[in-house]
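Severity: low
Component: inverse-folding endpoint
Summary: output formatting inconsistent between runs
Steps to reproduce: submit the following C-alpha cells with default settings.
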C-alpha cells in the first residue's frame, strides 16, 4: 500500500484548484505530443494532486483537438494513482436539472475523429471497458460532492459526442431513447485511455443545461452554459478539498492497477521496439517483467 496521487482533469469552467499548497506548474513531455497545458502539482493535507485543465487555461482547445493520449500519459508520468474528471454536461433527463452533479458509471462513445488507444501495430492490447469507471473512486467522489453542497445522482450513462456543435433535436431525442442520462464532448476516449494506463477513473458531470430534447425549449446557448458553469465550478473546487479530507492516508490496491496483466496480446518477439518506447509510462510495469 502507498499514498494517493489524484489526477484532476478540469473541464469547462474549472481551470485551477485554489486550495492546493506548495502549488507549482510543471512541464511534462510525452511521446504522444504536448498535453493540454502544464500540470499544476500540490497537496491538500496528506493527498498529492496533479491538476490538468483539459482545454488549457483560457479554454484554447476544442474537444476534438484535446490530445487525450498526451494528457493521460502526462498524468501517469507525474505519478498519478487515480484520475478524476470534473466535466460540464448537458442533461437528457427531466430529473437532472442544471446544477445537479452526476457521477457517471457508463458511456456510449459516438466520437469519430480522435485516437482511441495507446496501442497499435507492433503492440496490441485489449482492455475490458465493461465497467468503465472505478466504483470505489466514484463513490468517494459522490460523497465529496455531497459534502461540498451539491445535489448528487449516483450513476448515469454519458453520451460522448464529437462536437464542437451541440446536438440536433433529433439526435437529442435519439440519445434519450438509448437511455442516456447526460451528454458531453470530452469523456471519450479519455476514459478508455485511462483504463489502458491502469489508472482508476471517475467522472463527475456538472449539469449546465437541458439538451435540446425538451419541446418548446430554447436551443442550447453558450451564454447560459457559462453562467451555470461559474456556479458549478465553485462546488467542483470544494469537492476536491472534501475528497482530500475523506481519503484514507493509505491507498489499498485496485484491480484496475494491474488490468494490463491480461490485456497484452502481441508475442514478445513480434513487438515493435519503437512502439514499446512510446509505451514506457503506460505499460512499463508489465513490459519490464
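Observed output (run 2 of 3):
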Amino acid at each position: 500500500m502507498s499514498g494517493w496521487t489524484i489526477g484532476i482533469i478540469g473541464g469547462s469552467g474549472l481551470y485551477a484548484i485554489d486550495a492546493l499548497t506548495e502549488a507549482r506548474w510543471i512541464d511534462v513531455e510525452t511521446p504522444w505530443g504536448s498535453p493540454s497545458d502544464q500540470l499544476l502539482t500540490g497537496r491538500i493535507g496528506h493527498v498529492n494532486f496533479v491538476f490538468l485543465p483539459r482545454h488549457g487555461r483560457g479554454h484554447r482547445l476544442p474537444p476534438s483537438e484535446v490530445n487525450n493520449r498526451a494528457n493521460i500519459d502526462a498524468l501517469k508520468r507525474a505519478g498519478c494513482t487515480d484520475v478524476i474528471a470534473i466535466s460540464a454536461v448537458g442533461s437528457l433527463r427531466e430529473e437532472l436539472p442544471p446544477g445537479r452533479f452526476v457521477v457517471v458509471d457508463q458511456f456510449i462513445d459516438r466520437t469519430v475523429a480522435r485516437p482511441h488507444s495507446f496501442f497499435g501495430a507492433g503492440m496490441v492490447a485489449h482492455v475490458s471497458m465493461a465497467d468503465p469507471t472505478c466504483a470505489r473512486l466514484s463513490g468517494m467522489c459522490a460523497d465529496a460532492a455531497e459534502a461540498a453542497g451539491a445535489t448528487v445522482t449516483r450513476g448515469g450513462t454519458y453520451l460522448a459526442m464529437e462536437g464542437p456543435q451541440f446536438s440536433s433535436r433529433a439526435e437529442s431525442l435519439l440519445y434519450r431513447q438509448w437511455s442516456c442520462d447526460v451528454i458531453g464532448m470530452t469523456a471519450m476516449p479519455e476514459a478508455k485511455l485511462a483504463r489502458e494506463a491502469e489508472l482508476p477513473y471517475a467522472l463527475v458531470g456538472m449539469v449546465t443545461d437541458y439538451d435540446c430534447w425538451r419541446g418548446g425549449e430554447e436551443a442550447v446557448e453558450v451564454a447560459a452554459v457559462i453562467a451555470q458553469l461559474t456556479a458549478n465550478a465553485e462546488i467542483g473546487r470544494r469537492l476536491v478539498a472534501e475528497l482530500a479530507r475523506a481519503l484514507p492516508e493509505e491507498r489499498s490496491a485496485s484491480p484496475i492497477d494491474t488490468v494490463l496483466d491480461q490485456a497484452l496480446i502481441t508475442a514478445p518477439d513480434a513487438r515493435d521496439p519503437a512502439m514499446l518506447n512510446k509505451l514506457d509510462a503506460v505499460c512499463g510495469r508489465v513490459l519490464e517483467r
